[in-house]
Each structure stands twice: as structure tokens, then as C-alpha cells.
Amino acid sequence: MPATIIDGAALAAEVKRDAKRRVQELTAAGRPVHLTAILVGSTAAGELYASRQAEACRAAGISYDLLPLPAETSFAEVAGTIRCLNNEPSVTGIMLHLPLPPHLDATEVQYLIDPVKDVEGVNPANIGYVVYGHTLIAPCTAQATIELIRSTGVTIRGAEAVVVGASEIVGKPVALLLAEQMATVTLCHIATRDLKLHTQRADILVVAVGKAGLITADHVKEGAVIIDIGINRVTLPDGTKKTVGDVDFEAVRQKVAYITPVPGGVGPMTVAMLLKNTLRSAELGLKR
Ligand code: NAP
Predict the structure, then answer these.
(1) Confidence at residue 43, expressed as pLDDT on a 0 to 100 scale
(2) Where are the domains of the chain?
(3) Which atom of ligand 1 is nearest to 211's Cα?
């Protein structure tokens, strides 16, 4: 029997509904939730992402503003802006659009964001809290991945979980969160000698690489849960373009128990997690 498709859009709608209700409660109590996003150097992709984000925030009752800075802004100027936002009580959450211009180091800049206001969970302190098992705010895509796995009802504790792709923002945090949930975690990366050897024994397989067709039916175990984070634009034989993940969806779905589609899986849940984190930042701020 083909896999059950994990409906990320439907799950995301639920998360957004809950977030909206709580945002309304906070607003009614005189504690509005406000997210400021910083965009250094304007790109078409950055602006499009920012406008989608603004729309999602407004729909959840979160006020949002975008702070565009010129591409040549120095580290000291960006740092000054972030310090101001950290100290501004009406700003309950801060996020930084990536990529930054080449003269700015993303980690150094993220390090400056107050961990409580860090809605993307990218400050090293927040990653550290995940390591210590006291998660404050986790990176959105990693958190989305855990929620999607949980939605299947499959037990994470004790499961063989394999993560393919080891970036700081996606693969590594996913591996950490799975380890926090007591899965036995293998993190595969570019230097992994025999990828199949690992993926074939995964009860839970998470793929975050950015290579269409990387994971075929041969790579997966029957009955596994597959979370496909990859996003790739491919050109079909008839010349049309299509967005696909890293997993050969049609072939793999015949073999596994649960699979996320691309689009409609991790993507919408990641946006929902950003809203959830924005709310969490505001709530954490109240405890100070
Ligand atoms: P990234 O920074 O490029 O990281 C990709 C990782 O995969 C790197 O660790 C890379 O290693 C590794 N890798 C490359 N080829 C590999 C292979 N053949 N086998 C195993 N590992 C390999 O990308 P990212 O930011 O983590 O994103 C990964 C994918 O997820 C992209 O397609 C991105 O668009 C997508 N994404 C989706 C969402 C969403 O909301 N759905 C959110 C974030 C990202 P090296 O660096 O050593 O080459």
C-alpha cells in the first residue's frame, strides 16, 4: 500500500490557528506581539520571502516590520541596529534574512540577537540549549520536522533516525532534536562513504541536501517515515519547471509508511513554526 502523505499544509493551519488565538489573548492583555525582520542588501528572493512572512504574521495578528539595510552596511552598523532592537520592549521578536552580503558573517551577526527574541532559534545560545535538553527556541525547519514526524504517531524514542545533510541551520539541529527525543541518530554528510548503508536501516529518514533524486526507493526501508526537506527547481522533459524535494517521491511512496510531499510538507510547517516561535519569544519576554 502506498504511503500516507503527511499533509504539512493542514498541520500548519492548525498551528497557526492556535498561535492566532494566543496572540489575540496577549494583545487583549496589552502585550502585542511584534516581529522585526532585518534584510541586509535587497534581493528579489529576500523581498518575496519577507512579503510572504509579513502576510503570515498579519494573518496571525502579529505586527511585523521589515528593516531594510543597504548591502554595504558594516558589521558595526548591523550590530548597533540589533542592540537597539534587543533593548526595544515593543519588539518581541527579531529575525535576520539570509544570505548576508559576503563581508558579514551570519553566525557573528546571529550571536548578537537576544536569545529570547531569536525567533529563528539560530543564536548559538539557543542551539546550546537544545544540546543541553532545555530547548528555549529551536530552529524553525528542525522543529517543523519533529512536528511532522510526531503527527504520524510513530514512536521517536528508540527509533533508528538517519539525517542526510549536515548544515548548521537544518541538518545538525534536526539531528540534535531527534537525539533529544531519544532516537538513535546517524548524521550523514558529504563525506559519508556509503549513504545507502545508513538510509536503508532508517525507521525515520530526514533528507536536507538540495539534490533532486538523491534518495531513491533503494535507499529506504519498508514502512519508514520520510521527511523531505529539500527544495529543488527542475526542468521536466516538456520544458516546464517543477519544485521537487530530494526524494524520488513517486517511487519511494510505494515502499514507506509516511512521506512528506514537496511542496506542501515541510515548507508550510516551517512558516507555522516561525509564528509559533514568535509567540514563544513574546511569552518568554513576559517572564523577564
Ligand atoms: P546547505 O547549507 O547547502 O546544506 C546541505 C548539506 O548537505 C550540507 O551539509 C552538504 O555538505 C550536504 N550534502 C551535499 N551533498 C550531499 C550528499 N550527496 N550526501 C549527503 N550530504 C550531502 O542547505 P540547507 O540550508 O541545509 O538546505 C538543504 C535543503 O533544504 C535545500 O534544498 C533547501 O532549499 C531546503 N530547505 C527547505 C526548507 C523548508 O522550509 N522546506 C528550509 C530550509 C532549507 P557540504 O556542505 O559539505 O557540501
Answers:
(1) 84
(2) 31-115, 139-267
(3) 32
CB of 227 sitting under 6 A from ligand 1: no
The domain 139-267 having CATH identifier 3.40.50.720: the answer here is: yes
Q: What is the pTM of this model?
A: 0.96
Domain 31-115: give its CATH architecture: 3-Layer(aba) Sandwich (3.40)
Instruction: Report the alpha-carbon distance of residue 230 to residue 228 in Å, rounded.
Output: 6
Question: Mind listing the pLDDT tens digit for each residue in 234-268?
Answer: 999 999 999 999 999 999 999 999 999 999 999 99
Are 31-115 and 139-267 equal in CATH topology? yes
Distances (CA, A) of 148 to 36, 175, 286: 27, 15, 29
The residue to which cell 537544518 is assigned: 170
Cα–Cα distance, 102 to 161 (Å, whole number): 35
Give pLDDT, residue 1: 84
| CB 209 near ligand 1, within 6 Å | yes
Question: Does 106 contact ligand 1 (Cβ within 6 A)?
Answer: no
Q: Which residues pair with 188 in a beta bridge?
A: 164
- From first CA to last CA, the distance across the chain in angstroms is 52
